[in-house]
Amino acid sequence: MTVNDYYNFCHEICCYVVENIKQQKIGSLIIEIDEAKFGKRKYNRGSVVNGNWVLGGICRETKEIFLMKVEKRNKATLIPILEQYVEKGSTILTDCWVAYKCLGKIGYQHKTGNHSENFINPTSGACTNLIENRWWCIKRQLPTTHTRSKTLVNI
Q: Which of 11, 28, 84, 138 lies at a 20 to 30 A Cα distance from 1?
């Protein structure tokens, strides 16, 4: 067995485990929520032309995480997922994307941070650096083309 075969074998086992774990709700603490696109750039240049959107959340205190592939990045898609994976009453930290505006009205404490202005909101202290770091770690483990859509089928 070559090193490449062993790597592929380990990768398949990890994907199987992720696909078959029943994720439970996280929360009652501080949860960072963000979405990321896993895709391929044409000739490694320019904007991403195709790929998969993934919604993720991570608890700051326990480091529990959930990841869910989403077809659409809109309020109608995201809110049911958050209600499924995040306990009501939790403090949710997000970016300033408009689909998250209603979180305060549906039972969550909601704080936002805007990375184009500063990394940590000086008023609320909100930031999404932990989940942004998780995206970086996940993407770093993918092949350089970032196009293993079979891997992202059931995240």
A: 138
Residue ranges in the chain assigned as alpha helix (H): 3-20, 75-85, 129-141
Q: 109: closest CA among 127, 94, 97, 99?
A: 94
Upper half-sphere CA count for residue 89 (Cβ side, 13 Å): 4
The string of pLDDT tens digits covering residues 16-53 is 655 655 566 776 688 998 888 877 666 666 665 577 88
pLDDT tens digit sequence for 97-150: 888 889 989 999 988 887 667 677 767 778 888 888 888 888 777 765 444 555
Contact partners, residue 95, CB within 8 Å, separation at least 6: 34, 112, 113, 114, 115, 128
List, edge to edge, every strand of the sheet that includes 30-41: 65-70, 48-59, 30-41, 91-94, 109-112
What number does CATH give the domain 24-141?
Answer: 3.30.420.10
Our CA angle for 40, 17, 154, nearest 5°, is 45
End-to-end C-alpha distance for the chain, whole angstroms: 28
Residues 82 and 97: beta-carbon distance below 8 Å: no
